[in-house]
Amino acid sequence: MHSQRPAHPLPVRILHWIGAGAIICMILSGWAIYDASPSLPFTFPRWMTLGGWLAGGIAWHLSAMWVLFADGLAYLAYGAVSGHFRRDLRPVGPRSVLADLGAAVRFRLGHRLGHFNAVQRLLYSGVIVVICLSVVTGLAIWKPVQLGWLTGLFGGYPIARGIHLAMMGLIVGFLLVHLALVALFPRTLVAMVAPLPAEPATQAQEHGR
Amino acid sequence: MIRRPAVTAGDLAPELARLRRRELARLRRRGFLTRGLSLGSLALLTGCDLSTHSGVDAALWAMLGFNDRVQAALFSRTRLAETYPASAITKPFRFNAYYPEWQVRTVPTHWRLEIAGRVADTAPWTLDKLLALPQEAQITRHICIEGWSQIGQWSGVPLHTFLRRVGADLRARYVAFRCFDGYATSLDMASALHPQTILAVDFEQAPLAPEWGAPLRLRIPTKLGFKSAKNLQAIEVTNTYPGGYWENQGYDWFSGS
Questions:
Q1: How far is A58 from chain B (nearest CA, A)?
Q2: Which value does ipTM take for this structure?
Q3: Cβ of A149: how many Cβ atoms within 10 Å?
């Protein structure tokens, strides 16, 4: 029965949490690396970083990198093959985004488990692109000689490093919005762990706030 | 492929204990341990910063070993680091060492480059003898493990020319470098034989000044900056993993670019 499908299929739930752990490790260890030679006029407090110092930060970063890489590839393959991207994340027109965004800022946007509104589609597909860019720029600054063509594609080592840092900033921005919304709708957290059924469309209005 | 010798935790224990003491002393100097419990100090206490022999640190060291094998597989003997025009040279060039600039060592009197290990001819080399060998110049980007980078100009003897000249065993695994400022590092043989790996005698078309590594330094643009050791004293060709100043503290050994 259609309404009995889980809000999030099991592969998405598993890959989400592995990816979440890997991204957190990448960000916190990345801050330890950034602090060794900050390119902006601030550093991250040591208690916020992972690895203790530069070598520890790099060891964490180059370890979590493989987890993120494997998890990301599995997710991209699953999303493309299962229809998850087409059904849930394919961006809709700019008019729907504006309408949903307007409703969201007035706290009137309905939220149905298992269905993605225009703002969610934009944010989730956007953060997937941003994470892919952060992985690719990361490869470009890890291997500026062996993958020199890739580093060149981003305009050389210093620019690729700047883009890598900017992508981190976008991911952190996404996480703040994402966590704030989970705090507002705690049931979405449950649905990302347990197989809660997707809510049928007819109940949509009752969940509007 | 680089095969690092199988090292058991037992072999490393005294070394790691020494490194841990040093690391704790370093952190204490920075007042780190007095700042209370934090994510960073939690990482230290639970051993996630490579200075203890906890399970997490063992896993991190194992991952660094895995990364080194991946990096060795990615390494191409013929792919060259990008070179730049003279107008791209970074000025002023940044001084960097494990000590501040006022501690730079002057060249010892009667300096000779010592050669050891798996080589046919271990006779020491004077600078004049090195200058008589064919020279190569390069303008390449020096990328520090900290993330910053700068473009510099060096010239000197290609290391592969030198290693062949002294009759080195080119199938040995490692080439180790010891410096008279207390520094040390090592390369895999494939990287040592790369055409852009040079024993530099000049920086910006003038003989090396002490702060740039006089009288002789390694310059290897296919690896991170800390591998380009300054103030060379001795070169050894060996099959025993030599480590290095930073490598022993947790910097990833291969550190290829």
A1: 8
A2: 0.87
A3: 8
